[in-house]
Amino acid sequence: MSAWSFKKGSALESTSRLIAAESLDGERVRGKLVVHFDRPLPAEVAAEILVTLNRAIETIIGEELCEGRLPFTGEELVDRVRKRARSLPSRISEMRVEGLELLEHKATLPSRVSSHPHAHRSDMAAPVPTSTSTSGVMPKVSVESNVRTLWPRATQAVVAGTSTERLVRLFAPALRDSVAVVMMGLFQSLDPSVMDRLELFERRAGSAVADRVREQVCTCLAAAFHRVLVRATVDGAAARALVESMLEDALAPEPPHPEHLERYLESPAPLRELTRVVAAALGVPGDADRMLAAVSAYGMALRPELEGAAGAVKRLGAA
Question: Would the pTM count as exceeding 0.70?
Answer without folding.
Answer: no
